[in-house]
Known about the structure:
The chain is built from ten helices and ten strands. With 332 residues, it is an alpha/beta fold. The chain has a single domain, classed as Metal-dependent hydrolases (TIM Barrel, Alpha-Beta Barrel), CATH 3.20.20.140. The N and C termini lie far apart (41 Å).
Amino acid sequence: MLNGGRDWLARTVEEPIQADLPICDPHHHLWDLPGDRYQLAELRQDTGSGHRIETTVFVECGSAYRPDGPEALRPVGETVYAADQAAASADRGGARIAGIVAFADLMLGGAVEEVLVAHERAGGGRFRGVRHRAAWDADRPSRGKSHLTPPGLLGRPDFRQGIGVLARLGYRFDAWVYHPQLPEVTDLARAFPELPIVVDHLGGPLGSGRYAGRRAEVRAEWRRSMAELAGCGAVTVKLGGIGMEAYGLGWEHGERPPTSEQLAEAWTPEIEFCIEQFGAGRCMFESNFPVDRQSTSYLVLWNAFKRMAAGVSPSERAALFHDTATRFYGLA
Length: 332
């Protein structure tokens, strides 16, 4: 049984660390699923729990698609929904949803331009780019609309034609992959050196299924791939996803959530490696909420990030928690 409910999360209580540090949270979702609601009220509860969250970025998650009309344009319904939530967040004070990353089927090739234009019109000035999830592994086949995430997606000619349109129009690409796919991201980045790419969730170092109990081996492969990817100057990395069950640390099965000290002890080597390879100017901490709520509360998660960044300079800290994200996504 997975945890993640607020009663369970409340079993680990901490005071916020460095509560005045400005933060942009560049990766969260909003949805209303049976038994799992995470909308603006829940987001505001988290962003208002003690850290100074100033702005956020909504990232696609399949919410509020249009129920009819052309299939390619149905995801625009999610941008309409996110823009409405963003407008409400701006009206109520506290953290603002300042950016929207939507889904568009990049396998449409050149025809994806119509979808991108529709997202731009629907986004209320907040549309910043696309995430077309590529995360696939033989042990973890894609869920939901699996035809949209075939193996080898990033190298497909039709997908790359769509990426070319994305780049030409000046948008960004969120790359969600698992660690064996990182060389595919490197190849894509080399083919489109002008395209700003951000790799989600530390590049997906899996620790479940056939990867369970092989963390040292996975870490070594992940490090080699991330070091090579860091040579692509337009690639940034999101430092987060550390609460996902797929990463195999099992926090979600505990009697109580981990403390920020425990999270920092488990993940500081990966975080420090990313900062060393990419530089603070190409790294941004992310909450990945409510997904990472499987393992930790919002307040404890950001405490953990602050512990992980204890050894950086003030300018690097500002970049990691705020400036890299706002610059990458062009947020006001």
